[in-house]
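Report of the visiting student (M.T.), summer placement. My assignment was to run the structure pipeline on a short list of targets and document each run. The first record concerns 26S proteasome regulatory subunit 4 homolog.
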Amino acid sequence: MGTADVKRGAAGGVSCEEKGSRYRLDGAVERGLRERLRLRLRSTRRRLARRQLVRPHSPTRLLSAIMKPEKKKWEPPLPTRVGKKKKRGPDPTQKLPAVFPTTRCKLKLLKMDRIKDHLLLEEEFVLNQERLKPTLTEDKNVEERTRVDDLRGSPMSVGTLEEIIDDDHALVSSSSGPEYYVSIMSFVDKDQLEPGCSVLLHHKAMAIVGVLADDTDPMVNMMKVDKAPTESYADIGASDARQSLGLEQQIQEIKEAVELPLTHPELYEEMGIKPPKGVILYGVPGTGKTLLAKAVANQTSATFLRIVGSELIQKYLGDGPKLVRELFKAAGEMAPSIVFIDEIDAVGTKRYDSNSGGEREIQRTMLELLNQLDGFDDRGDVKVIMATNKIESLDPALIRPGRIDRKIEFPLPDIKTKRYIFKIHTSRMNLADDVDLEEFVHAKDELSGADIKAVCTEAGLLALRERRMRVTMADLRAAREKTMFAKKDNGPEGLFPFTI
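After the run finished, the structure tokens were exported:
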């Protein structure tokens, strides 16, 4: 109706004024307008009631809200910084708010912790699997060996492989004598099969079901020197343009007989001679025989096997000769090699008739040693060094040329050599100013290299007994008297007599 004013008339009708015109309405139209107005007011009242502008039972406020526009709320003007001082410190509007984890964040954090625990557990499991892998492999190997043993069957016989025909067949001779044409089982390691090796045969099918391992005595492996000694030729002798000190002559002889044939064999071929097969070192005790053998082991890259003569004497019959055979067999397999037999007089004494079973066993061991030194088979690059204190008691067949081609004597040291040995053993000692080693060098006592070392060691112990860090002349004199007393009076009588 626009901006029309609605008024109630005297006759009960409604007059409407719009743009200066007046219209007369009948009763039906009046009732329709009232009904429409009532419905519109009711809908507007409900709508405004939802918005909480007026109460549902207030029609006056409802009409004012419909007819009048809403007024805007007053808002303060924006503050300006004109004429204000700038505050020091951080701007509170830019300060980061304090954030606290909500329940949802806590649940997410717990979930991440669980995932991390699972990953750590998985990593530990993988590491344990890698660590326990060798054990699993060993268990698998044991299981496979058990299956192979079941396939082999029991009992089994031992034979010798004579010839390999093809990949699946071979000729084998049994212990009874005849040879058999047998098959080789598929699980046998064919790389280990070679003519002459011992094989396991099935007792019914006579097929090769295994290869016997090498039956070398474990004692032979213990004879091998794995770690090279620390002694060198410089600790034994030295030479210059004017004189030769220490065991320089003995060093030169053993180099020509043992070391040079292994390092430069072409020199002997050009000369048309065969290198010596072995040497023997003899002399009174303490002159450096074993020390020189250690220096040879240090200087050469060949395999060094060391054994004492008393180790060749075994308890049971035949074990001594067997040990000698296995010793030289191992030396041939490890060639170039050097076999050092110390105290050879334990098994190499002169032969004589005896009713004792032990003496006869020792003689059999020596006969096997003679056969290995100069037998039918060539030893190749295997050199032998022997050492003894009594060369006169050895059997002539053992030290004859062809077996032992060079005999190297180790005499007692002379004045120059004694001075050199004293210098070696006192080089690291704290000596007092009154020490004069020339007194001991020119003494009439027949001191060996081991005796000189014992004198120096004993003098150091006497100084430590008195809480001193320097060795005096009195300590050296007391040590010499103690060493010579133990050597002359308390030593075994009749062995190596010394002249005073």
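Confidence is low (pLDDT under 50) at residues 1-23, 239-244, 492-500. Residues 112 and 118 are 10 Å apart (CA to CA). I thank the supervising group for their guidance throughout the placement.
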